């Protein structure tokens, strides 16, 4: 064939191939739930948002419905924009219960050994059983309530001594990290920099960096796992991060074991699980270690994010704050700090907790699930391997379910009939639903009730802050100014008093 013929034929062959690929793509796309029309081969790569994805996905939901989809280089992504679409997934048993494969964070850095990235299977069920045994119900986790109260009292002392708003987020991280370390391993965090907190937070920072969408090509092309390290610099990074993951798992566990051997171990997640089993294989021990390390990753930052948003809500809704304080004053009387067992007597404060779970989406897009097999949902085919993203933000801000969703209004949960309980949405869905929700709620209630009993939370000198979510799987409220001061001399005495546990 002459070079002239080749020059003429090449673009024609190219165009025909493109048309064929587009046809194939459209056929595949046709069976998926509706969504934005993509381009051949790359699909919706150009439509994908890189910031505040939940807002773009919400627009897609308004256009294409509660169940919509996109494709990225042939990878189907299904987006659940409505509570009913998420409930429909729930009816499919374990089909949507695995996680997408993320070779960098998972296999290389080691997070597929922790619950949040673990594929669905026997080991996953063992981890969930351990969680359920100790934290699955309010009754089961009651043994840990005194330490939640004691750590929260410590938090009040820290706020009293350093009330500036720039310290608030750090105080909250210390509180929630402190609760989880003590509950999981019996470790009491030190007032200054705590070595265990540093170790775990460093490892979790690596996790966050490793899971930034698109940051590592190996997540798109897993075959790169087979490249030698000199051709794959990500492997060197992964080696260093994997070491941090191992330290995060081993160091606090060894601390708990040493305390057990010395007979000084307080009751903790690890000590209870180890004592409950008579004979244990190395695999059983590993399961306990990795289940334990899943608690901090799942629970510390999420609860701190929610509590930080609570302080913002109090700045934006002073009437709510006064009403909650009036309820605490009338029931508790100012002679002691509120505790968890007061919850039934404090319905308005409980409604503040419920509204907080709705108003601030800690995980606006949940944690992605993946389909284990081809499944028909609402007449659409969801192929095996599809990534499922639940737009929890959109569900919790649905004006049909929650009128004026941007307003922080606990009364919506006390009205008759009450608006939908946000707990059925904000903790995710199916077999992956958050296993720490009882602890989360207890921690939120105790901190909110104690803080409102002794502090006034007011706006700072600048403009009124706005409630906006930061980027990331776990999303905080953007930093804001506020003034936190003790309500009275009596409040100062209560804060400075003895810690109960
Ligand atoms: C306000 C607090 C919290 C919120 C809003 C929250 C929300 C969530 C959400 C949306 C998921 C993903 C569920 C899904 O995949 O569908 C999740 C998973 C998870 N959460 Fe929470 N969570 C909170 C607190 C906690 C606490 C206190 C713990 C532990 C003590 C915890 C441990 C976990 C773990 C381990 C997972 C992964 C579960 C799995 O993959 O099977 N969370 N959480």
From TrEMBL:
Record bears the keyword NAD: no
GO molecular function: heme binding; iron ion binding; monooxygenase activity; oxidoreductase activity, acting on paired donors, with incorporation or reduction of molecular oxygen
Metabolic or biological pathway, per its Swiss-Prot or TrEMBL entry: Secondary metabolite biosynthesis
Positions annotated to bind heme: 434
Cofactor list: heme
UniProt keyword annotation of Membrane present: yes
Keywords noted in UniProt: Heme, Iron, Membrane, Metal-binding, Monooxygenase, Oxidoreductase, Transmembrane, Transmembrane helix
Membrane-crossing residue ranges in chain numbering: 6-25
Pfam families listed in its UniProt record: p450 (PF00067)
Membership in a protein family: Belongs to the cytochrome P450 family.
PANTHER family: P450, PUTATIVE (EUROFUNG)-RELATED, P450, PUTATIVE (EUROFUNG)-RELATED-RELATED
The protein, known as: Cytochrome P450
The species this protein was found in: Mycena rosella (Pink bonnet)
Source taxonomy: Eukaryota, Fungi, Dikarya, Basidiomycota, Agaricomycotina
